[in-house]
Write a structure and sequence with these properties.
The protein contains three helices and three strands; from the N terminus they run βααββα. It is of the alpha+beta class and 82 residues long. A three-stranded antiparallel sheet has the order 1-3-2.
Length: 82
């Protein structure tokens, strides 16, 4: 028997190409485009690569930036950071 999947959550497949559009990159990391733009501005997400006039985000760079985001795990908490 297959486990029930919520109708409100959707499982996204892994990207099948390395370069993603702005909207795809934002969706890939789980945020909206406005938040993604903010995260680029403050350095939490990478700037895009240019292919002629098109901007694309490298999946590997997104993965690396996502890995560096702080976790909500209290074990990772450093009181000196407060």
């Amino acid at each position: 028997m297959r486990p029930a999947v919520s109708q409100t959550s959707k499982v996204l497949p892994a990207p099948t190409r390395r370069g993603l559009s702005r909207g795809e990159a934002a969706e890939y990391v789980g945020v909206g485009t406005s938040k993604f733009d903010e995260m680029i501005s403050d350095g939490r997400m990478p700037h895009p690569k240019r292919i002629d006039g098109r901007k694309v985000w490298d999946v590997r760079a997104l993965d690396s930036a996502f890995d560096r985001l702080p976790s909500d795990n209290r074990e990772d908490h450093n009181p000196w950071d407060d």
